[in-house]
UniProtKB/TrEMBL annotation:
Protein name (record): YciI family protein
Pfam families, sorted: YCII
Signal peptide segment: none
Occurrences of domain YCII-related (ranges): 3-109
Family: Belongs to the YciI family.
InterPro entries hit by this protein: Dimeric_a/b-barrel, YCII
Organism classification: Bacteria, Bacillati, Actinomycetota, Actinomycetes, Streptosporangiales
Listed SUPFAM superfamilies: Dimeric alpha+beta barrel (SSF54909)
Organism of origin: Nonomuraea spiralis
Length: 111
């Protein structure tokens, strides 16, 4: 089953600095196990463009909104047997301690 894992900042990161995981080791391990299909770090939120259409008109917004406290900084596409395995993969990601990770399964429109 495929899961999108959004890697986000958090306003309340873990303050425990002991045994900090290494992101390159996490990537290498999950790539080797075939659980990480693809992933990337995103450009800073100041490079974001938000696209909307309102009353037929294109509305563009540059950069983050000032009220935004957490932002998506990267993503990983995971291939896991089930949600429990995806949670275990996310639990070991360094941003589980410094940020937050959102797991979302891909919709299956075939059912």
């Amino acid at each position: 089953m495929k899961y999108m894992m959004f890697v986000c900042t958090d306003t309340e990161p873990d303050t425990d600095q002991n045994d900090l995981p290494d992101v390159e080791a996490w990537v290498a391990e999950n790539d080797a196990r075939g659980r990480r299909v693809h992933g990337a770090v995103l450009a800073p939120e100041s490079a974001a463009t938000t696209v909307r259409v309102r009353r037929g008109e294109l509305v563009l917004s540059d950069g983050p909104f000032t009220e935004t406290k957490e932002v998506i900084v990267g993503f990983d596409l995971l291939e896991c047997a089930n949600l429990d395995e995806a949670i275990e993969v996310a639990r070991t990601h360094p941003m589980a301690r410094h940020g937050r990770l959102e797991l979302r399964p891909f919709a299956d429109f075939e059912q």
